[in-house]
From TrEMBL:
Pfam family, one: TPR_19
Official protein name in the record: Uncharacterized protein
Organism phylogeny: unclassified sequences, metagenomes, ecological metagenomes
Xref: SUPFAM superfamilies: TPR-like
InterPro entries, alphabetized: TPR-like_helical_dom_sf, TPR_rpt
Organism: marine sediment metagenome
Amino acid sequence: FSSSTEQFHDWDLGCHFARAFFYWLHETGQLEQYLKNVREKGYELSVLEETVSKSYGRINIGLSKFIKKNCYAGAYLKDGQQTEDKARKKQAFLKALELKPDYQAARLELAGCYYRSKDYEKCRENLEQIFDDPESIEYRRAASLMANTYYNEKDYPKALEYYNKAWEYSDYYEYKYRVAYQIGNCHYYLKDPEGAKQWYEKFLDCKWEQESMKASADYARKYVGRTDTAIDAKQGKCEKDTKSGN
């Protein structure tokens, strides 16, 4: 930790340290007070010492421990997300979880690795740990990915169960129409034409991607408008790509 603003700006790791520093202040409940103090008194080290009621030395010790515990795992997560090498990607997420076992973002990424390699059992094992926390910000993505594993295995009742969970958490999800479309597909395969019609209508009511979902939207319109002929055309429609797990 340096008291020199000029040294900080010249430091290659400055932006990464700044994120960790403000994360530390937030987690210790002192971020708002610190921001208030620096507006009134400036950015001198003494302002930080006054805010957290600790000396420079104790701040360094506390911040170092915090970074090792909470930020190293994030670095491995970022490495895993950026590499294209499948083995390195998986190892990075495993390392992140070794450092922080409850790191749900890394858990979800690891589940995605297993999903893409079609190891659905291991994928589901990891996702189950996310479902233990219904308040998790990863819950919707986990539910959608879990549904995809069952959908790909043609277990439509289980797929529908988890797509419905994903829908419950999709109020502010930009691509919620994808979830609605998959729910409609599940109802179709479960021989529930009314359920399929209801969800295809919800899909059409959403703002879907004109290009990537055009064939699906055309099919949904046909199904909603002419159920008898659309059922025969089911095999020709374009479904959501569940290979990516998104």
